[in-house]
# Entry
Amino acid sequence: MNRRFSVLRSYDPRTKLHILLMYLVVTAVAWNAPAMALSVLIAALVIYMSRESLRPVVSMSLLLLLLDIIIGVVCMIAMPFKYGFYTTVKLLLLTFVYLLIMKSMKPGELLDGLALGFGLRAKTTKVLLIILDFIPKVYREKKRGRKAQKARGISPDGIYSRRVFVRIGNKSFRQPDVRHVFSRIRQEALLAIPNVKYAFTRSKRQSEAMTRRQYLSTIRRNPVYELKLTTVDKVSTIIYMILMLVTIAFTCFF
# Structure
């Protein structure tokens, strides 16, 4: 496979998980302006490498992002404003990085990446797979529900249009319809509970299926496909490791 620095989807699953882990460390230690700026730079690098539009990511977990903002507002009220603001930015960036990396992996790749990338036992790998893949499962359930709504002639984006025309004098201007935003949020909130319920049911069935197929019968499992770290994977891991160490240094010495 021809792997390039600009396509995160083509990276080895172990490399993606190592990048996610290192970014988790970055968000945990960054508590001053230089470190936060570097954290934003790393997140922007992941977004650029993913070559994904941010609209599907926002749609993937709109309520999760809104929850991040609510938690951030509470932190800004309960903590000094600077640290509350940092917390809000960290939650949003970590959510974007997590969703982009999970979106670029299939469950089988995630399973192999956890088992081989960290040398985990089968039981631990199974638990982490179910936890990390839960939000993508919610998105897949949501996507399935939207397709079912379209098949039945129901608008999945709410009852209002995305844009409206405003006429000023002899000219007409297009602008976003605020009612559409609130209608979409209301619909997301109403569908969140059944989507989470179905995702939980699918996770439970997945866990039972792995147990029945004796996934836990050995300490470690061999991957379905042979994984090979290319030069691009190794260089990318080194780059992110250097950025993580620089962030830690900025936090300690600034």
